[in-house]
Every structure is written in structure tokens, then in C-alpha cells.
């Protein structure tokens, strides 16, 4: 039986399923939205629900009809446009959890770990209490232990700055297990200031992985906010094709300065990609696939494709070439697919099992031709050669998908809001 409590702690709601009045699952609760009101307790105006497709939408508190330990039920019309933070809105989990506060009784600082919202007589919801973990005591008359937890009223604390570095560090630490694409979704939904604050707290490799999952505008904003040396370091950690795409969005002077500060070898890979005409295989390829000589064994090939930094698509194919093995290589001989590696004994030379029938694609070929070849032969990766038949890279299926989808594909689903069917009270 559903209940409607007048006081609820936000952390207990995270991840709960949200249903419409007809019993159809809308999604899961991921955050709550409040309006800051100066010294007054913030008013809770709605919840953020993650619907299928990883999109996050806003559901007003006026649409919430029931809250219990297992589910949340809403009614009326729910706009499925992607939630965008505005004005004085704050995300209670993303921005208030881990915020440092000072206890008004003089006993020291504490960190917010949970927030209670309470329903007033007129039906509006407000922040009423904080569940905090005490940091230290500033009073010599009190013997208080670190890590002591307590519940305090909102008015019994002095708020710290919401954008202090400690809060960003804590957010990064608590979300370290998120996949880059999911972390990117969370960043995209933040305010500009918060997005940059969180991004700058990430390690270079983590930031590079997340940047590759963000829309172009967010990538440019974050990279431009970094110090020039760090921006160059992050670009070095990115896949060369993604780094080239990002640099292409920057002003010429900024782009050249970043390339000058990058490792010369990494910069050369990026420069080569930027020389290709748009919509060609060369413009979207990865210039560092797995390349081995024909004398290499199956055992050596398996060791190479186990590398953690390789994507599944790149690890699916080993390109066999004559030395030099750096792109552009010596003469291209063929490809060995990972299934073949599993069917032959470890000492077998790759030259004995190489597939010479599968033709590579020209670096000048149109992307549509590459897509047709990948689809025709059910491939995850395809070799790319120049006019001298030297391997210059490989195109993977995800490279092609990224190119064929609209530039704003991550946000395009927001263009036409979908309205959920109204419940009986809608």
C-alpha cells in the first residue's frame, strides 16, 4: 500500500522506479531539483528522472502523487524534453551532497551526506534537515569524534560555497565507477560553471575518455577552460581521431598552440588526420591499430589485443604488414581476425593464417563506401591504405557510426518533446 510521508530523505529515493498512474514505468529517480532562496531553506520543485536512452527529464513535485520505499508515482503530463538546469536551480545530489557546512553551535565543520525534504501544509516541499558527518570540533569544551554523524535543521548550519574544490573532488571520487559515457551525460546536464569545476578535477586519462563522449560545444568549453599545458596533455590521452575532431572546432591560433605543446609523435598523428578531406576514410580512421609483422606468432598477437586501452572494435583485427610497423607501414599483407587467433596454436605465424582476400579501403574513399564494406563483410574494423598500398590506419564500426549520426545526436532526441499520456487527474 502506498504512503505519502511528509518528510523524506533524498538518498533513500535515489534509483527508485518512477511510474505513471497507469502503471507504466517512466524511469528511475537520479536527483532532485531545488531553488535557492538566500537564507531561507531551498524549495524542492521537482525530481530528475532517467528515462530509457539515458536521457534525464524533469518531473515537477506537483505531479508526484505517491512516494514509498519501493516506487514513486506521478500523474498528469510529463514533458520528455531533456532536463536543463536554469537560474537559481540546484541539483541536490550533484551539488549539495558533499558540501561542507559550519555548525551554528560552534562545534566545527561537517559534510552533507543526505538531505531531508518536507511537505508544508500548502503542498510545497522544502529542505528541512541535513544528515551530516562531522569533520572536527573547534570547541575545547567538547570532546567530539571525527566521523560522528547527526541530523541538524537547515537553519542550524552556515552554508559553505557550493563550488568549493572539495565538493568537486568528492563528486569525482563518488562517481569513479561510472562509464565515461554515463559520466559525460551527468556533466552535460550540469550548469556551465559546475561542468568545468568537475571536469578539471578529473585525471587526464579519465577526462580524455569523458570528453570523447560529450557534444562538440561541451568539449570546446572544457578544453578552453584548462591551462594550455594541461589541455595538451589531455589531447595526447584522447584517440587521435577524436583529438583531431576537437581541434578542428578551435580557432586556428589556439589549435596550433596546442599542437606545438603536444608530444611530437602524438601531434604528428593528429596532423595527418587533419589533412584529409571531410567524409573520407582517412578523416575518421584510427592511425594506431594493432599492426604486426608476418613472423609474429598467434601468442604474440593475443598478447597485443589484450591491452586494456584497445576498444573491442580495434582488438578484433590484427593488421599484418612489412616493416616499418608504424603508420604509414611497409607493404600491407592482410588481416587476421581474433576468431582466427583462437583457432590456431600459439606458435603459428600470422603470415600462415593471414586473410589476403579482404581488400583494404583507400584513405580517400567516401565514408559511405566504408560503411557498405563493414556491413557487407560483417566487420568491426577495416584497414585503410594510401596510394602506395601502405597501411595508414583502420576504420572501426564506431568511427563510422559517430560520423554518420548527426553532429548533435546526443541532444537531438530533445528537439521534439514527447508528452506522456495523461493520467486520470491530468
UniProtKB/TrEMBL annotation:
Cellular-component GO terms for this entry: membrane
Pfam family, one: SH3_actinomycetes
Sequence ranges assigned to domain CBS in this UniProt record: 285-353, 354-413
Species name: Arthrobacter crystallopoietes BAB-32
CDD domains referenced in this protein's UniProt entry, alphabetically: CBS_pair_Mg_transporter (cd04606)
Keywords: CBS domain
PANTHER family named in the record: MAGNESIUM TRANSPORTER MGTE
Top-level taxon: Bacteria
Phylogenetic placement of the source organism: Bacteria, Bacillati, Actinomycetota, Actinomycetes, Micrococcales
The protein's name: MgtE integral membrane protein
GO molecular function terms noted in the UniProt entry: magnesium ion transmembrane transporter activity
Amino acid at each position: 500500500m502506498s504512503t505519502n510521508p511528509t518528510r523524506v530523505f533524498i538518498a533513500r529515493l535515489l534509483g527508485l522506479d518512477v511510474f505513471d498512474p497507469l502503471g507504466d514505468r517512466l524511469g528511475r529517480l537520479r536527483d532532485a531539483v531545488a531553488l535557492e532562496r538566500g537564507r531561507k531553506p531551498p524549495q524542492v520543485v521537482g525530481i530528475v528522472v532517467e528515462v530509457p536512452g539515458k536521457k534525464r527529464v524533469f518531473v515537477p513535485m506537483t505531479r508526484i502523487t505517491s512516494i514509498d520505499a519501493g516506487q514513486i508515482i506521478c500523474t498528469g503530463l510529463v514533458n520528455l524534453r531533456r532536463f536543463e538546469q536554469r537560474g537559481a536551480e540546484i541539483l541536490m545530489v550533484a551539488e549539495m551532497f558533499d558540501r561542507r557546512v559550519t555548525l551554528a553551535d560552534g562545534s566545527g565543520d561537517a559534510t552533507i551526506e543526505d538531505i531531508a525534504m518536507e511537505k508544508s501544509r500548502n503542498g510545497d516541499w522544502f529542505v528541512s534537515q541535513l544528515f551530516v558527518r562531522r569533520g572536527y570540533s573547534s570547541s575545547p569544551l567538547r570532546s567530539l569524534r571525527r566521523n560522528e554523524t547527526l541530523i541538524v535543521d537547515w537553519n542550524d548550519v552556515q552554508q559553505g560555497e557550493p563550488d568549493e574544490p572539495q565538493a568537486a573532488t568528492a563528486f569525482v571520487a563518488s562517481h569513479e565507477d561510472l562509464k565515461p559515457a554515463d559520466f559525460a551525460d551527468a556533466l552535460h546536464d550540469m550548469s556551465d560553471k559546475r561542468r568545468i569545476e568537475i571536469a578539471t578535477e578529473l585525471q587526464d586519462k579519465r577526462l580524455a575518455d569523458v570528453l570523447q563522449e560529450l557534444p562538440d560545444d561541451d568539449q570546446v568549453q572544457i578544453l578552453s577552460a584548462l591551462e594550455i599545458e594541461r589541455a595538451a596533455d589531455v589531447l595526447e590521452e584522447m584517440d587521435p581521431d577524436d583529438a583531431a575532431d576537437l581541434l578542428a572546432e578551435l580557432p586556428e591560433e589556439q589549435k596550433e598552440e596546442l599542437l606545438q605543446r603536444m608530444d611530437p609523435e602524438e601531434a604528428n598523428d593528429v596532423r595527418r588526420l587533419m589533412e584529409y578531406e571531410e567524409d573520407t576514410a582517412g578523416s575518421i580512421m584510427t592511425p594506431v591499430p594493432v599492426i604486426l609483422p608476418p613472423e609474429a606468432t598467434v601468442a604474440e598477437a593475443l598478447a597485443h589485443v589484450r591491452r586494456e586501452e584497445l576498444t573491442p572494435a580495434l582488438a578484433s583485427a590484427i593488421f599484418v604488414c612489412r616493416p616499418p610497423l608504424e603508420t604509414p607501414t611497409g607493404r600491407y599483407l592482410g588481416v587476421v581476425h581474433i576468431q582466427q587467433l583462437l583457432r590456431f596454436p600459439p606458435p603459428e605465424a600470422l603470415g600462415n593464417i593471414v586473410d589476403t582476400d579482404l581488400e583494404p579501403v583507400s584513405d580517400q574513399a567516401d565514408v559511405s563506401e566504408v560503411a557498405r564494406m563493414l556491413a557487407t563483410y560483417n566487420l568491426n574494423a577495416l584497414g585503410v591504405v594510401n596510394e602506395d598500398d601502405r597501411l595508414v590506419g583502420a576504420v572501426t564500426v564506431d568511427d563510422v557510426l559517430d560520423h554518420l549520426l548527426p553532429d548533435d545526436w546526443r541532444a537531438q532526441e530533445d528537439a521534439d518533446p514527447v508528452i506522456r499520456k495523461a493520467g486520470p487527474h491530468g
